[in-house]
Write a structure and sequence with these properties.
This protein is mainly alpha-helical. The chain contains two helices and no strands. Helices cover 58% and strands 0% of the residues.
Length: 65
């Protein structure tokens, strides 16, 4: 009787492990949240620094100053 009980316990444990394993396998993996990429601001070509040479170039190009 003791042997049978022990065996039954063992089998039961195995069964439970098997179910756990199955359960683990079926568990959906949590999706990682994708980090939103920050859009890089395009630098204005007409920055205060760049605007003078541009204007000068345009003047030279158009009027030959």
């Amino acid at each position: 009787l003791v042997g049978i009980e022990r065996l039954r316990g063992h089998l039961f444990k195995l069964q439970r492990k098997k179910e756990d394993w199955k359960g683990k396998k079926q568990k959906k993996k949590k999706k990682k949240k994708k980090k939103k990429k920050k859009k890089k601001k395009k630098k204005n070509l007409t920055n205060k620094q760049n605007i003078l040479p541009l204007v000068q170039n345009m003047l030279i190009f158009c009027y030959g100053y």
